[in-house]
Amino acid sequence: MPFISRKCIEDIRRQLNIYDVVSPVVSLKRSGKNFVGLSPFTSEKTPSFYILPDKNLFKCFSSGLAGDQFRFIEQTEKLTFNEAVEAIANRYNFTLEYEGGIAAKRESRSLRKEILEIHELAADFFHREFKADSDEANQIRQYWIELRKFTMEIAADFKIGYAPKAQTSLLKNLIKKGYSRDALDKCGLFYLNPGKMNPEKCGFRFRGRLIVPIRDYQGQIIAFCGRQTGLTPTEDPSHKAKYINSPQTPVFTKGNIVFGLDRARHHIDEVKAFVLVEGQLDAVRCWHHGYKTTVAPQGTSITNEQLRLLKRYANRMDCVLDGDEAGQKAAIRLLPMTMAAGLETRFLTLAPGEDPDTLLAGGKSDYFAQKMESAQSAMQFAVSALLPEENPSAQEKAAALEKIFEIVVQVDSEAAQQAYLMEAGTLLHLVDVDDRAAYQKFLQFKWQKKRTRSFQSSIGRRIEGEEKYSGRLTTSEYELLLVAFHNQDLIQYITEVIDSEWIDLNSIYGRLLSRILAEYKEDLWEGIEKIDLLFETEEEKNAAYSLMALDPVELGFEDPVDIANRCLKSLAEKYARRQSRKIEDQIAALPTPSDEFPQLQKKIVLLRRLKNNPPQLTVSSPGNTGF
Question: CATH second-level architecture of 6-108?
């Protein structure tokens, strides 16, 4: 299979600033010449994720990850390198060039890219069927307009579709377009028979259902949700299910997706808070009525990953709950999760049988707006949900307080813990529980539970001088590699004097250094900009990109030649000591007399000379060539 050409990859890397790739995912603020934000890889309260525009790199101190534009997309979207290049080219309108030429493009597309293309074509097909002049289409539009009280404009805006009972024409078209059997099998739309693929004998996941496309935060259709209608065949295995979703595929994991985020994130600066509702059609309805930051969990309940995704864009969330018992239980489960994610959450509790869709469709938008205005804070909701309405007993109060402790202990900040407990204490004061007493009980609770908070030492440190050389335990291989990365002119001189046997290959920095020097000796070195060709593991990528992200001057590397010579001296001394010990052991094992003794003794003399007078670079300090 043809590969994307190196020239094409380098052109994209050079022309596309990493800020443009990262800013849709991470809320960034300027910090000197760089930008800082909350890590997209971990849940953190203090920003430790940095963008270095002048180097086109990112560095995340909380996760240890570092890299360029492609690596960022690889890590945030769980793609291969080629898939990341394809994704960036598609989003930023770069034309991909393959080693086999432009004509090789369709042949070389990845499975992920095939599935995304299939989804786009399927969404178009479903939407056409929704608007078609047929009995089924007339019935589904009647369901949409008269029963659900949505408009055709909303259907067009969200590309709402209908999956007809027979979808052979869709499958035939996809086969005709040359999509692989693997992609058709794994896209989640069809049940393919083994052996020769016959569209007439294949099954279809969504039959007779209203189709809502599911998009990732970039707006790509990655899955579908099918809502049961009167057209859903009774013989369909999933007939009784009110909603069915696409299965997990190479492009879709439901616990990692928030429905509506592709739209909501563009409006979050206006209201500073997301509105979380239960289902996709609730979200569509809220959007249509002006609640532009409405989202819904993709799945039966929200996950930590989905909350972490929301936290990238906002610190606050209004959670709209169904008024039944299941909604209350879901909210109690959600509350500690939102606190752990660092989201300040309010709760809007509806009456039994109410939901945003029916309220807004039923002309009760003012009532819904009033409910939104009177949403309860986290502690107000917790106290009201955990305590009976009238005359709670001392035992019930103690049990409620214990559950509140379990919730509040999820918060990282002690100041925030105190604030939550003061509020809870004030509310519980109505039932004779003092707020100070509540806090003392909480401290005792923490001690009894032996909860410890281990904050990563790197969080909160700034990249400008974060990894001060004097404060690190480094190796000579690490320092020499850092010098080489930031002063490429020196690689030639280092190669001329260093012996490959001096390098410790048990160290990741040693392996990288050895590989670079070997490439240079063989006249294969193409510069730091193509170093990704030498990486064999994820650990090596992180190590190399982290070194590239550092500023040698900030670390005290003002004279690279001096640093290089000190490293060479250290490596030579260590090698000489190791070899001398081995030879001394050999001499001790020799019989007396032995013809080998003079030769071994000569080797020790040579090693002693190396130790006392290691080779040094004689070049004057070159200019920093960068990378």
Answer: Alpha-Beta Complex (3.90)
